[in-house]
Amino acid sequence: MEKKNNPDTIQNSIIYANNAATTWPKPPSVLVAVSQAAAGPYLEQGRTTLQDVPDYLFETRRKLANFFNTSDPDAYVFTANATDSLNLLIHGFAAQEKEAFHVITTSFEHNSVIRPLYELQKTGRISVTVIPPNAEGVIDPDDVSGAIRDDTKLGIISHAGNVIGTVQNIKEISRIMDEADTFSIIDGAQSAGQIPVDLSRTVCDAFVFTGHKYLFGVPGTGGFFLKRPDKISPVRQGGTGTDSSSPVQPESMPERFEAGTPNFPGIAGLAAGITFVHDIGIDTIQKKSMGMISDLIQQLQEIKGVSLLHENPQTPLVSFQIPGLDPDDIGYILAKAYRIISRSGLHCAPWIHSRLTEGKGAVRISLSYMNTFEECTQIADAINALCQSV
């Protein structure tokens, strides 16, 4: 008898449309890589003569450098996820500053930015300016320039929003910050693997990525690219396998920010995920994903009672409301009655929801390369049926 929780059975019986939270299903190559790494011995590189043991850390850093078009693999630091990365960078930057300073950020930010900033703000360490989007749903670089003050030291920008799917001009925004001697952090959690990111053409100081979203890795993986390590203090210390006689965290990269045993299976899966995206090609992924979301949006626009938050996303997601129905109830009905997995609520992005939904939330449908056009039609049909019942 086939078990109810068999992964193959689940995959064939649901429509998964919560990819902006984490992509699913994972490519078979990723699952194989994770399994093989977990089954193998955890041998520290450089401390064994076994030449056939993969160096997961080095190989994955090399793949990241190639993927984002940078020259130094050691500029990539592994963390548990984007939230972990942003905490390390934000608190690490603040630890370097002796006086209170000004931060600029945007209405699109996730709680992984909002909450670290709040912790610093409530102790008087920082003041914060939040830049809203323009009528097209993007951050105007001129507004960034206008928000910079003499005491502005840090800027944090979400590359792609997780609520309406617009993409910011990080090349121009980073240039503005660089000219103002403002340290720039780009949150690429929603963009890495979804849209082309060429860090050789962007002067940002740090770029954050997560492994479990559009790089198709598993949860527990992520990291950041760091151009100026001297600007970030290590906020956690521990074993690195190097200079073990010293009580001081090593200054060299990436050991400066990596303490403790790495997530070898997860990192191996991340490498496989990067290879998966690279082999298909970002352009191919983007063409299919955006084709599907455009098709879905067109169908939703024809349904009476559906209110879209934004109709022209640049990533494959759309958020909507149905007047008279609570977003959480919509999400529940889609899951229970139609086996469609969406995401309802504030999406950990309360600032943009306060502007777009008065804090009431919405239902988000987010697709990936793994979805199909047929599923888009099934989603639209389910939402139409829901609207007819109101």
UniProtKB/TrEMBL annotation:
Record key words, sorted: Aminotransferase, Pyridoxal phosphate, Transferase
Ranges of residues in domain Aminotransferase class V: 15-376
Domain of life: Archaea
MF (Gene Ontology): transaminase activity
Region entry Disordered, spans: 232-256
Pfam families: Aminotran_5
InterPro entries noted in UniProt: Aminotrans_V_dom (IPR000192), Aminotrans_V_PyrdxlP_BS (IPR020578), PyrdxlP-dep_Trfase (IPR015424), PyrdxlP-dep_Trfase_major (IPR015421), PyrdxlP-dep_Trfase_small (IPR015422)
Cofactor: pyridoxal 5'-phosphate
Family according to the record: Belongs to the class-V pyridoxal-phosphate-dependent aminotransferase family.
PANTHER family: CYSTEINE DESULFURASE, ISOPENICILLIN N EPIMERASE
Protein name as it appears in the record: Aminotransferase, class V
Lineage, broadest ranks: Archaea, Methanobacteriati, Methanobacteriota, Stenosarchaea group, Methanomicrobia
